[in-house]
Amino acid sequence: MVNQIYKEIKALPPEAFDKAISVELESLSDEEIQRRKEQLEAQIKIIKNKDSLDNSERIKLKQLKKQSGLVKSVIKRQNLTADLEINNSELNQYRRFFFSGVEGNAFEFVNFKINQLSDQNRLIQLQLKPTKTLTPMEKQRRDALMQSQVNIHQLSPDKMTDDQYKLLKENRLKEVELRQKLKIKDFKINFGLPGDIKLNVEVINKLQDEIKILDLKKSVRENNIALGSDVQLDVNRMKELRKENSKYYGEIAELEGRENTYIDFEKENLRRAKEKESNRLKQSFGLNKKFNLRGEEELIGALVTH
Alpha-carbon distance 109 to 178, whole Å? Predict the structure, then answer.
């Protein structure tokens, strides 16, 4: 069935073909899209490994690469949409904390998280828009946000600028500072944050590891600049710099592997907050059901306006 649909789509003009493929991909599950991506990559590899290509094979290779690009684009959109949904849930939670009357250290931290998540959402919303539809101001805004919101694990040392390094490091140092100020009362008495101090320590450790990764990538970048400069280096110095880089990459890999063992603080907070709200609603429903004898409609109204 899928093959038949694809044959019909393939017969369309180029622009209609792209749109039809995208629509078809959007209807597939994550597993099916991933399978399609792997199939296309395998087909491309087979053709590219041939010693020579005839005209029909070159055309087929071009079509396969185009389809592969469309699949990757759909996967990227799905990931961004999922990230946006998670961020919105977290952002709404922190906004509720903000308006609940948090004070002191908790207030400063919650305000920081609202600004951080808002910037992440602005970037995702711009990334979801086709580049050709962005205004010059939107492109400028997107590029600026990418400097501060980039995933450091995906950041190439050679592409990291000095300004970006400083910005990424300062953001993490600031969050560590704010989290270290949080006390038990900020989690319990001040009802500002779900979770506990143990979870907060976990994310502080995670952020401190990310700062180390940034420092290591900066060192790799500096060594690469020296290796690629016009200044002639002796053979021993070049070997020394490459040995250092190998060591730095090993340390980066170790730190990134360790991150997988940390509790995801934000996701755990969100889970606990949802659980707490669900329990509150259940209790509210139970009380209304026990004491309200005026019918189902009023029960529902009490829950909605609670």
Answer: 6
Buried b (16+ CB within 10 A) or exposed e, 97-124: bbeeebeebbbebbebbbebbeebbebb
Tens of pLDDT, residue by residue over 36-82, are 888 888 988 888 888 888 888 888 888 888 888 888 888 888 888 88
pLDDT tens for each residue of 212-268: 999 999 999 999 999 988 777 788 999 999 999 999 999 999 998 887 666 565 566
| Residues sharing a CB contact under 8 Å with residue 231, sequence separation 6 or more, in sequence order | none
SS3 state at 28: coil
DSSP conformational letter for 305: H
Three-class DSSP labels, 249-299: HHHHHHHHHHHCCCCCHHHHHHHHHHHHHHHHHHHHHHHHHHHCCCCHHHH
Tens-digit pLDDT profile for residues 22-33: 666 666 777 787
The two structure tokens encoding residue 130: 């086709």
Distance CA 98, CA 7 (A): 54
* Contact present, 278 and 263 (Cβ < 8 Å): no
Q: How many residues does the chain have?
A: 306
Q: Is 75 helix (H, G, I), strand (E, B) or coil?
A: helix
Phi-psi region of 134 (alpha: psi -120 to 50; beta: other; left: phi over 0): beta
